[in-house]
TrEMBL record, chain A:
UniProt source species: Tianweitania sediminis
Superkingdom of the source species: Bacteria
Domain ABC transmembrane type-1: 54-261, 331-528
Similarity remark: Belongs to the binding-protein-dependent transport system permease family.
Lineage, uppermost ranks: Bacteria, Pseudomonadati, Pseudomonadota, Alphaproteobacteria, Hyphomicrobiales
Localisation: Cell inner membrane; Cell membrane
The name this protein goes by in its record: Thiamine transport system permease protein ThiP
Topology versus the membrane: Multi-pass membrane protein
PANTHER family: MOLYBDENUM TRANSPORT SYSTEM PERMEASE PROTEIN MODB (PTHR30183), THIAMINE TRANSPORT SYSTEM PERMEASE PROTEIN THIP (PTHR30183:SF9)
An individual GO BP term: thiamine transport
GO cellular component: plasma membrane
Matching Pfam families: BPD_transp_1 (PF00528)
InterPro entries assigned to the protein according to its UniProt record, in alphabetical order: MetI-like, MetI-like_sf, ThiP_ABC_transpt
Name of the gene encoding the protein in the UniProt record: thiP
Entry keyword set: Cell inner membrane, Cell membrane, Membrane, Repeat, Transmembrane, Transmembrane helix, Transport
Automatic annotation (TrEMBL), chain B:
Annotated Pfam families: ABC_tran
Protein name listed in UniProt: ATP-binding cassette domain-containing protein
PROSITE patterns given in the database record: ABC_TRANSPORTER_1, ABC_TRANSPORTER_2
Keywords: ATP-binding, Cell inner membrane, Cell membrane, Membrane, Nucleotide-binding, Translocase, Transport
SMART domains assigned: AAA
Domain of life: Bacteria
GO molecular function term, any single one: ATP hydrolysis activity
Family membership: Belongs to the ABC transporter superfamily.
All residue ranges annotated as the ABC transporter domain in the record: 7-235
Organism: Tianweitania sediminis
Length: 536, 243
């Protein structure tokens, strides 16, 4: 007990929690102070427009969730019914790409495909018998959300289906189950169990979605709370309004979370599809064709915007772009900011993981709250939208300092903290595994401190640590949240520059930048996957 | 050089959650003691208290007469061989053994020759550069024994070291431990589920049940006609009731 209390690993864990507390607490303080300063203005912001914002935020999230999750059920089932066909693995990998793609790149890809001047515009005009208006507003938001979340939900459902023991499939084959009874007795129970989690995760992602709504929403009729916060701070200079909006956004997020927890959803899901187990049934030709059509349709839907990103990116003047000073500066800024953010994310998660492990030896129970914070609590930073944190600090700092000069610090801190839960998930299994194998051995041999890190921990953790670093860097590289608030002529990241080019209708430039950014993040994600996926 | 030290658990109390333990035992210096008992009876806890992975809530653990309270595992005069995970999978045999000598792998001339001798003595000569996964289960346990050899601690603790081995290998490892004991004369404590291991190896037996020491004594008594009744019940051979 006394030994535990003085353990340096606990101090590091407490320090990591303190960073989170200061970052989040500071944002809240900023919001509260501003609200107190001018309560009348903050209250005045609760008007019909705010009500409409809340309604639209929830409405688009509900529609997006339905449109993503229901088809995903069917696609996942189709994929699970056919565990071996050529290209299946490629399709599954393709379904992982949207997760790795920065939202702004996807938004641009969708516009390049389905926008008013998109690749498909002329064919769509012929089909609809008029001029294709392009996807903006609600339709744009929905298509974008489905593009991101249909593949995610499919992978999660497929994972659920893969947990069905092979014996159940053997039994079904022996009893001569029809596809319908297989679905009813075997597949549906597995899917139903993961349905609340998956739907909850998708809903949360859509409620807090910022970039897609900002770039595709267009106009006050298709704006969500997050985008309204951004507009209140950057365009209307109305911090009182931003405070009200942020508080409402927080209230909505909290409410949704509570409801989801009631439903038994685990909002911190992750997708890791394995190779499907063998199946013993022989699908009829009809089912085969229906499944093939479903899979093909979903694949095309995911492939379309990706292909459009590549095609329109290639047609940009890439050579000129790459030698443009603004682009080079933005790329350099992006790289150093995201490297530091990734380093912070890894440092925070390692501190938390080590503290948690140390606390698991506590048999007295007096550290229980601390343990909960390092174990589960830290994961909850994910549900606090970066825009909210950014807005809080923006409001807090605006009187004391030049907020735009603080952009780098804010981007590193917020992106690092937001990437931390993902880094945590990549590092923790390897760390726990290593600790289980080595803790007692090291204690009995007296291998401690730096020697332990050098001889034991580093060789075991090197790959997951680098994987987490690459993953966190990719996340932060593509992020357009905090930088949208804090960015300026002086501090521009690639996504910020992309948004600027988009807003000034330099579409070809934007497309080229999007391709560049997509390649960077994909390369990092691929690296993370390689390093993290297979050990040895 | 590392003649054994007596191990004493004097009125030792320990507990977590529902589980409560109370141990009283004196394990004579230089002898081999088998710790036996049904699963959940506290065998591992007993060893962990001696090795220092757990601190008692009451009573005293003494090794060679010295109170071990607050002494961390690596400073106790104890080596421990676990059931598994005795080796660092990413380090070759040689380094795994050398870590018993120097936790920073900085070896002097004497250390190097001690390591080489221990590897020879355990029949691992020529396998110095192998990684643990290139060895058989029996060889891996022998690496652990070689490391215990170079550590030269007066007390050796073995937590079901043969549990994952087949019958032939188990007999071989029992011989290995006996040879080690002949050479060094250390005090040995080992947990086993197999009465034949205990019979072949142990001088003393400690029987645990439900977190308490319920019988201790010379092994020949335990395996002879005068076996204590709880031990007979544990073996499933109660005395035929008279009449």
């Amino acid at each position: 007990m006394a030994r535990l209390r003085s353990d340096p690993r606990l101090r590091q864990g407490a320090a990591a929690l303190a960073v989170l507390a200061v970052l989040i607490g500071g944002a809240f303080a900023g919001l509260l102070v501003e609200g107190m300063r001018n309560p009348a203005a903050a209250l005045a912001a609760f008007d019909a427009y705010l009500l409409r914002l809340v309604r639209f935020t929830l409405w688009q999230a509900t529609l997006s969730t339905l449109l993503s999750v229901l088809p995903a059920l069917l696609v996942a089932r189709a994929l699970s019914r056919h565990p071996r066909f050529p290209g299946r693995q490629v399709i599954l990998q393709l379904f992982a790409v949207p997760l790795a793609l920065p939202a702004i790149v996807a938004a641009l890809g969708l516009l390049a495909l389905l926008g008013r001047a998109g690749l498909l515009a002329s064919s769509l005009s012929v089909l609809t018998g008029g001029t294709w208006p392009g996807i903006y507003g609600l339709s744009g938001i929905l298509v974008a959300h489905v593009f991101f979340n249909l593949p995610l939900a499919t992978r999660l459902f497929l994972e659920a289906l893969d947990t069905v023991p092979a014996d159940q499939h053997r039994l079904a084959a022996q009893l001569g189950f029809t596809p319908f009874s297989t679905f009813r007795f075997i597949e549906w129970p597995a899917l139903r169990q993961s349905l609340p989690s998956v739907a909850g995760l998708v809903f949360m992602l859509c409620v807090t979605s910022f970039t897609l709504v900002l770039t595709l929403g267009g106009g006050p009729r298709a704006t969500t709370l997050e985008v309204a916060i951004y507009q209140a701070l950057r365009f209307d200079f109305d911090p009182a309004r931003a405070v009200s909006l942020t508080l409402v956004q927080l209230g909505v997020t909290a409410l949704v979370l509570v409801l989801l927890a009631r439903l038994g959803a685990d909002t911190a899901g992750e997708a890791n599809p394995s190779v499907s187990p063998r199946r013993f049934h022989r699908p009829s030709t009809g089912e085969r064709m229906a499944n093939a059509a479903l899979i093909a349709l979903a694949t095309l839907f995911v492939l379309g915007p990706i292909a459009a990103t590549v095609i329109s990116g290639m047609s940009a003047d890439l050579a000129r772009l790459l030698f443009e000073d603004a682009v080079r500066n933005a790329a350099a800024t992006s790289l150093w900011l995201s490297s530091l953010a990734a380093g912070l994310a890894v440092l925070l998660s390692l501190s938390l993981i080590r503290a948690r492990r140390t606390l698991s030896q506590d048999r007295t129970g007096s550290f229980r709250p601390f343990r909960w914070l390092t174990e589960t609590g830290a994961g909850y930073v994910l549900v606090i939208p970066p825009i909210v944190i950014g807005a809080g600090w923006f409001i807090l700092l605006r009187r004391a300092a030049d907020v735009f000069a603080l952009a780098p610090a804010m981007v590193i801190l917020v992106n690092g903290v937001m990437a931390m839960p993902f880094a945590l998930r990549l590092i923790r299994p390897a760390y726990e595994d290593g600790a289980n194998r080595h803790d007692r051995l090291c204690a009995s041999l007296g291998i401690q401190g730096w020697q332990r890190f050098r001889l034991v921990d580093w060789p075991v953790l090197r790959r997951p640590l680098l994987a987490a670093l690459a993953f966190a860097m990719a996340l932060s590289l593509g992020d357009l949240g905090v930088i949208a608030l804090f960015g300026s002529e002086q501090v521009q990241t690639l996504p910020y520059l992309l948004l600027a080019r988009m807003s000034s209708y330099r579409t070809a430039d934007a497309a080229g930048l999007a391709l560049f950014l997509a390649l960077l993040t994909l390369a990092l994600m691929l690296l993370a996957d390689r390093l993290g996926g297979r050990r040895r | 050089m590392s003649a054994g030290l007596a191990v004493q658990l004097d009125n030792v109390g320990f507990g977590y959650g529902e589980a409560q333990f109370h141990f009283d035992a004196l394990l004579p210096a230089g002898e081999i003691t088998a710790i036996m008992g049904p699963s959940g009876s506290g065998k591992s806890t007993f060893l962990n208290l001696v090795a220092g992975f757990e601190e008692p809530h009451g009573g005293t653990v003494r090794i060679g007469g010295a109170d071990m309270a607050g002494v961390p595992p690596w400073q106790r005069p104890v080596s421990m061989i676990f059931q598994e995970n005795n080796l660092f999978a990413h380090l070759p045999v040689e380094k795994n053994v050398a870590l018993g000598r120097a936790p920073n792998l900085k070896l002097g001339e004497a250390d190097r020759s001690a390591v080489a001798q221990a590897l020879q003595a355990t029949g691992l000569g020529g396998k110095e550069k192998r990684l643990p996964h290139e060895l058989s289960g029996g060889e891996r346990q022998r690496v652990a024994i070689a490391r215990a050899l170079v550590r030269e601690r007066p007390v050796l603790i073995l937590d079901e070291p043969f549990a994952s081995l087949g019958p032939a290998l188990r007999a071989e490892m029992v011989e290995e431990v006996r040879a080690l004991h002949r050479r060094r004369g250390m005090t040995i404590l080992f947990v086993t589920h197999h009465p034949e291991d205990a019979e072949r190896l142990a001088d003393q037996v400690v029987l645990l049940d439900d977190g308490r020491t319920i019988a201790t004594g010379p092994a020949q008594d335990f395996f002879g006609a005068a076996a204590p009744e709880p031990f007979r019940r544990y073996l499933g051979k109660p005395l035929p009731s008279p009449g």
